[in-house]
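Sample intake — Fibronectin type-III domain-containing protein
Collected from: Calidris pygmaea
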Amino acid sequence: MAPKLSHGAVETCDDGNMTANVASPVQPGTSVTLSCQLNPLQHTGLCRTVIFLNSSELITSYSSAVNPPDEPRNVSCIQNGTDGHPTCTWDKGRLTYISTTYVAGLPLGTKNTACHCLQPLSPHESDIIRPLSSLKVESLSGEKCGLYGLEPHTDYEFHLSCKIHPERGLWSNWHVYQTRTPEAVPTGLLDVWYRQQDVDNQRQNISLFWKALSRSEAGGRTLQYRVSFEALGQQRSPAGEDITNHTSYTRVMPRVGYKITVTAENSRGRSPPASIITSLGTQGLPPPQEVSAVAMGNSSILVSWKPPAGLVASSLGGYVVEWAELGRDTGLEPHPAWVKLPASNLSTVITEHIKDNVCYQISVFALYEDRAGQGASVRGHSRAEAPLAGPQVYTTPRANGILVSWAPIPAHQQRGCITGYHLYLQNKDREEAPAVYGRCLVETEARWVAQCWLLMAHLQPGDHYTIWMTASTTAGEGPRGNSELLSLESMSLCRAGGQEKS
C-alpha cells in the first residue's frame, strides 16, 4: 500500500514514481488525479492504483496504463415492440483499464399501445422500435394487402415484415402466414371425344370421353360432370341429362343424331359447355389422305396426313388424332388417347401413353364444324425390336395341297408392329436346306391380322416335310415358332414337339 502523500508529493517505489495532485486525506466528492510513471520493466507487471475513503480501500485497479473513456461511436438501439425495453450497443473505443459507466438517454416520449405500420411516431422512437413479428395480415392498421394473379384453390405461404416509419427505422422479424385461396368458377372448356357403335337397327352405343381440366382451369375441386343430350332433326327432341363423377360416360340410345354437351362443376359454378355432334352417316364427310406414322424413338411417333380430297383447310374445323395400343384388352384401357388440332396442322408428334416396342392403331379424323368425319388409320410404333416368338402354325390336308394357317403372336412378344410372316419348308428325305416357301406381308393400314393362311400345292408325294413360320418387324426377323411334320402321300400330319432344328 502506498503511503499518504502531501499535495503534489511524489512517492518513489521500486517500479516507478506515483504523483497525486491533492493533499491527503481526500474529501468525498473531490477529484483526484493520479499519475504513475513506471521504470523500464525487466518482466511483465502491472501498476496497482488504490483510492481510500476514511482509511478504507475504495477502488483498486491493476493496469499498465489508465485511459479516459472515448466518446461512444456506432450507437444502435433496438426495442422489440412499443412496450418492450430498449437494448443498445456501441463501440466504446480504447480500454480505460478501470470500471467505466455509460449512460444512454432515449427521449422516447409517450408509448403507443399498438403497432401501426407505416404511421410514424416520434422521430427517435420510430428509429429504434422493431415491430413485433406476431402480427397477422388483418391487424396492420386495419388494412389488408391485396394480391392479384393468384391461382384459385391453391395453398400459399406468405412471409410478412413491417416497420413503423416508411423511410427509416427497423423491419420486424419475418412472420410466416399460410392460407388457401378460395375456389373460382371453372374457366376451361372440356376436351370431349366419343366413339359410336351400332347395337342393332334401332339402337346405338355412344361412349363419351373427356380430359379433366387443369388446376388453373378447374378453379377448385371438381365435384361432378353434367352430360346432356339433344336429339337432332326431331320436333319433339328426346333430351336427357345425367351426372357422373368419372371422365367417361356410356349410354345406349336410339339411332338418331345428337348434340351432346358436357360441363364440369365445382362449389362455385359450371364450366363453359363443350359440345359435340354425333351423326349416323359420315359418307359425305371424307377422311384425311396419306396418313403415315414414323418412329421417332424415345416414346414418340410422328403422324402426318393431307386434307380430305377436294377440301381446303379453311373449310374444316380441325383434326382429331386418336391412338390405342393394338391387341390390348379395351376393358383395361377405357380411355383412348387423342389430341385435337387446328385445321392448319397436318402433322403432330404423339407422346401421351406411348411406349417403345409397342404397336399402336392411329386414326386421324377431320372435323366438320362439331362433327367428326370418316377416319383414316395406320399402324405405328416409336421403336421396334425383333419379335420374341414365332407364330403358332396349323396345317389342314386338302385335295389340292396343304392349307397352312397361323395365329398372331401375343402383343407383348411382338416388340413393335409386325410387317410380315415367312413360311419355311424343309424336305427331310432329301436333306435339303430350309427355304422360304411363301411370305405374307402386313400392310401398315391393316388394323389387325388375326389369322392368315397359305396353300402349299407343289409338294412331292411320299416326301416328308417340316414347316415353321417366323414374324418380322422393321427391326428384323424373330425366332421360329412351332414345327409341323407332314407327308402329302398319306395326307397325314404329325406335329413335332418343340422347335425342330434344321
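Post-analysis note: The chain is about 5% helix and 40% strand.
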